[in-house]
Write a structure and sequence with these properties.
Length: 480
């Protein structure tokens, strides 16, 4: 939906409201809006793309490959298709500018959608000089993945290798290769197509993009190591949690479950309104793995059942509707005195769930100069959904109404106090080295203080102040 069309429709709607138009007129206008929306997303693609004769055959890996390929390239992709130019990607402030400098056809390209690479590239806000062409500097940052919570992910995303290969491929190999060597000599070589396919199905949303997926995988690895959980996992289990974290938002359409339910999205119909996106992401990752026959053949049936079980468990847990259920699962076991994650695998995976959930909202525990850009991009995505909800006459929640963006700082206070604090506090109970207290909790408190200072200010203005600042942000070394 183009911004000009959106503004025109909103202007007409305001005119009708201001002049107290008859209900029949306003209802007719709502139907016009919905018709425009239906035409824009081109729902008709679904019927022509999906072939119902293709069914699953658990015993046939070749059939599994066929199903996987067709399933995520036709049915799934049609379900999440959207017509958006991504004109205001918060994490990509220099994209259009670079196009103008490098291409004579800039006027045409500026008006065209961003390349559908599935990730958004942003610059570091730490005001530290970085040579993004330097292989030595790249490898230095890469070596901190899974070991240093405060690694500069925004800087990493700008290194030449990452811009060419993508964050899922680069970060995925860095995190999985050590455990891959322990699973099979050919594992890491065969892993590349899997990571590439996962990266390809990430859409270039302002927030839920491949860079977010890579970041969550890195953060989950840090938490698992810092809390001493890594030593309790087998190589197959390590791979399972890492690939789940990497692909936990694969194919995310930039819309919430509530939006998909309200609009009766095909995905909502497939998953019966229950954790729609989370079911979709988990299924998509499993289909991608199965589609790579040679890679899939490395796993025994028992290994694959375990991998799939953990992918489903971890990815479904990222549904915020079940947030407190997962916190209480750990709390109840801990309070009962029976909690023993070192000897009870189910207790261990209850903690792994909390690690993935913490990583999924992990930008709240990053230094302010990283937390703020991620927050801005998240609300950019929310506001894009809100624009479509206005178009469809769906009531807007606070987070999705761009006319109330000055309320965001105060709403962030509520999110920190209501959601992030209970989650991190539960993990702190097993944090024998105080790692979470020294780094995550400290960053979180600093961010809270910043939100309080910026009450009732527009996010764009707060971010502008950060970008104009020449202060070199001293970020603590959080290496384990």
């Amino acid at each position: 939906m183009t911004k000009d069309l959106m503004c025109s429709l909103l202007a007409i709607e305001r005119f009708l409201l201001d002049h107290r138009a008859d209900e029949s007129v306003t209802n007719a206008f709502k139907e016009v809006k919905r018709a425009i929306y239906e035409q824009k997303i081109n729902r008709g693609e679904l019927e022509s793309a999906w072939n119902p004769s293709q069914t699953s055959n658990k015993a046939s890996k070749s059939n599994g490959k066929s199903l996987a390929t067709n399933f995520f390239h036709t049915l799934f992709c049609s379900c999440v298709h959207r017509d958006t130019a991504y004109e205001e990607d918060t994490l990509a402030p220099t994209y259009t500018e670079n196009v103008i400098k490098e291409d004579d056809a800039s006027q045409e390209l500026v008006q065209s959608p961003r390349p559908r690479k599935g990730w958004v590239i942003g610059d570091s806000r730490r005001n530290v000089k970085i040579n993004y062409d330097s292989q030595e500097e790249y490898e230095k940052v890469l070596s901190q993945l899974g070991n240093n919570w405060n690694v500069d992910i925004l800087a990493l995303s700008n290194f030449k290798t990452v811009t060419q290969m993508g964050p899922i491929v680069c970060v995925g190999h860095a995190l999985i290769s050590p455990v891959g060597d322990r699973i099979h000599p050919e594992f890491n070589k065969l892993l590349s197509p899997v990571l590439t396919m996962i990266q390809d199905v990430y859409l270039p949303n302002p927030y839920h993009n491949a860079l977010h997926g890579a970041c969550v995988a890195h953060m989950t690895a840090v938490l698992t190591k810092a809390l001493g959980l890594k030593e309790c996992l087998t190589p197959i289990e390590e791979f399972a949690y890492l690939i789940a974290a990497i692909g936990h938002d694969a194919g995310h359409p930039g819309k919430t479950n509530a939006f998909l339910r309200s609009t009766e999205s095909p995905l909502a119909l497939i998953y019966n309104d229950a954790s729609i996106l989370e079911n979709y992401h988990a299924s998509l990752v499993c289909h991608i793995i199965r589609s790579q026959e040679t890679f899939f053949d490395l796993f025994s049936q028992t290994d694959w059942e375990l991998i799939r079980k953990r992918i489903i468990q971890l990815v479904l847990a990222t549904d915020m509707m079940s947030h407190f259920t997962h916190i209480n699962n750990v709390r109840d076991r801990r309070v009962s005195g029976a909690f023993d994650y070192k000897n009870n695998p189910e207790d261990l995976w209850l903690l792994m769930v909390l690690c993935v959930k913490t990583a999924d909202i992990g930008h709240n525990f990053l230094p302010w100069c990283e937390h703020l850009p991620w927050t801005k991009s998240l609300f950019d995505e929310f506001h894009m959904q809100g624009d479509e909800e206005r178009l469809l006459s769906i009531p807007l929640l606070l987070f999705f109404d761009r006319t109330r963006s000055a309320d965001i700082p105060d709403s962030q206070l509520g999110f920190f106090q209501g959601f992030t604090t209970p989650l991190i506090n539960e993990l702190i109970f097993i944090d024998s080295n105080s790692y979470l207290t020294r780094f995550l909790q400290k960053n979180s408190q600093d961010n809270l203080d910043h939100w309080k200072k910026n009450s009732k200010r527009e996010l764009a203005d707060i971010l502008s102040d950060l970008d104009k600042s020449t202060e070199i942000h001293e970020i603590a070394d959080a290496s384990i």
